[in-house]
Amino acid sequence: MDERKLSQVAKQMIVSGKGLIAADESAGTCQKRFDAVGVPCTEENRRAYRQTLLMAPGIEEYVSGVILHDETIRQETSDGESFAAVLEKKGILSGIKVDAGTKDLALHPDEKVTEGLDGLRERLVEYKTLGAQFAKWRAVITIGKDMPSGACIHANAHALARYAALCQEIDIVPIIEPEVLIDGEHSIEQCYEASAAVLKKTFDELAGQDVALGGVILKASMVIAGKKAAKQSSIEEVATQTIKVLKESVPANLAGIVFLSGGQGDEQATENLNAMNKSGKLPWPLSFSYSRAIQNPVLKLWAENPSANMGSAQAALLFRSKMNSLASQGKYSSEMEKTRPY
Ligand code: 13P
Question: Angle between the 43-54 and 27-36 helix axes, to the nearest 10 degrees?
Fold first, then answer.
């Protein structure tokens, strides 16, 4: 492990004013997203759509890295160039989703554990040759009656730490993503409790595997009431509670934190990030690693007419990336939405 190299890449991922685009949707998730806009989810359509994203002129101004799927890191542009090479030319880092998805957790109905450690060392070596400089592993935590269980938190935190150690062994920066799902009727207080327990256990396990935190990025979910909760959370509540849980649970020497959007509205995800960054000095940079909250308008436009709308889809991508870049510096205002090009 080359701690200096890891820390240098992690710093580049979270450099001021930039964030990550998550474009690593699995075939199943892609199917759902494409079905919603009436486009057949073929390999060629996934490639063409992702080419529209990755080749958007100017995204390098707001985006430091893109998380790719196994399929995409092996694909090429219509001109025969690998996507990783295209990104490298723009000074954007390529990342790779390496978990193998979730399975039911034994003895714990309704809870999940993320798999993918078997053979991971060998897969990471290959991804490195394909151009990946960072990786992502997502764990899923559900809030509900007697959930999350200690068993679910422990199993997922342990897997995250084992994954992170394997990444660092070959100088790939691990993004650790313990996502507390927004689905459900839970209150913001319940989300706070679950997030605190998950984060504390995850950092205990990382310490247990001797993972160097200066070369790790946390991809966090915000502390927020469930989508079906009677009382929805305000921007101020989300910002205050998320910062509180992070300060209590995340060591100050971690390289940085990026957020997932998790089903929040596009502007809501931007507003919440902005509020956190406006709230004063924090031990780590806070930025974005959104999939839906950046791609929603892009996919819609592209799906209407892939060739005629390519420019407008890319303009939408650029706009949401710029808004989130401003939010990562606490400089966003909802007034700016009036200038959006879609
Ligand atoms: P969303 O922003 O759509 O939640 O996706 C982020 C992500 O990468 C989940 O793993």
Answer: 80
Cα-Cα-Cα-Cα torsion 160, 166, 170, 175, nearest 10 degrees, comes to -10
Residues linked to residue 286 through DSSP beta bridges, in sequence order? 257
Q: Please give the domain boundaries of the chain with CATH numbers for all domains.
A: 3-339 (3.20.20.70)
CA pair distance 84, 100, nearest whole angstrom:
21
Q: How far is the CA of 63 from the centre of ligand 1 (A)?
A: 16
CA of 156 to the centre of ligand 1 (A): 17
DSSP H helical segments within 108-187, as ranges?
120-129, 150-169
Distance CA 78, CA 48 (A): 8
pTM here is: 0.98
177 is catalytic: yes
Residue whose pair of structure tokens reads 């502390």 in the numeric block: 223
Ligand 1, pocket residues at CB < 6 Å: 22, 138, 177, 260-262, 290-293
Query: Can you tell me which residue has the tokens 């450099």?
Result: 15
Q: What is the pLDDT of residues 234-253, one digit of tens each?
A: 999 999 999 999 999 999 99
Read off the amino acid at residue 150.
Answer: G
Please confirm, yes or no, whether 322 is among the known catalytic residues.
Answer: no
Q: Nearest 5°: phi and psi at 76?
A: -130, 160
The active-site residue, picked from 97, 112, 136, 219, is 219
